[in-house]
Design goal:
single chain; 198 residues
């Protein structure tokens, strides 16, 4: 379903201005069952920066991009306003190094329970036997926990698939399997105000 696009805005003309942002974290060594060093938590976003140029026409273009449905998050990076059009988060598991898959998934968000059938029931031996037969190589599994795209960017010929594919190349370059689970869409924008500096 295509979201309502503000008048005078063509989202596809903004593709060349999008930036992909990444955050990730993994433990160096395990001190208990909750901090498995074979598990990488990651998050990424497709961000459209808005500039505050001097000429009136460019300012008007930026104002139109602030219309309803153009972003899921509006925030400030210093003095520059940014629109997040697609956030995504998840895990990458290194099955070659992981101690016990279920022990790594259990302390996390309950949403990860959806992915339990992908793995051997013992939790020790990697993927479920039916999946092992289809994999050519690689020992990493990427789980997309959450992903959403702003309404105005839906139905434009695969913008969401393009962005998710590009982000996955960076965060899961050697994954042998990528899995996700459908859930309700986030469509209400979140606005954050600039924080005082210094």
């Amino acid at each position: 379903m295509t979201g309502a696009v503000p008048a005078g805005v063509e989202p596809l003309t903004c593709l060349n201005r999008l930036e992909l942002r990444f955050d990730s974290a993994a433990f160096l060594v395990a001190s208990d069952a909750h901090d498995d060093p074979a598990t990488l938590e990651w998050g990424c976003r497709a961000v459209l920066p808005l500039w505050e140029p001097d000429d009136e026409e460019a300012r008007a273009d930026s104002a139109r991009l602030l219309g309803q449905g153009m972003s899921l998050v509006e925030a400030f990076q210093g003095q520059r306003q940014e629109l997040t059009i697609l956030p995504m988060s998840g895990l990458t598991l290194d099955l070659w190094r992981i101690g016990h898959i279920y022990a790594s998934l259990d302390p996390r968000d309950a949403d990860y329970e959806h992915f339990a059938p992908l793995f051997d029931k013992s939790g020790d031996l990697g993927l479920h036997g039916d999946l092992e037969d289809y994999l050519v190589n690689g020992t990493r599994v990427a789980i997309i926990d959450r992903a959403g795209i702003a309404p105005a960017w839906r139905g434009l010929g695969g913008v969401g698939r393009l962005l998710i594919g590009r982000m996955l190349r960076w965060v899961t370059s050697q994954a042998s399997l990528v899995a996700t689970h459908p859930r309700a869409r986030l469509s209400t924008p979140i606005r954050t105000r600039p924080q005082p500096c210094c």
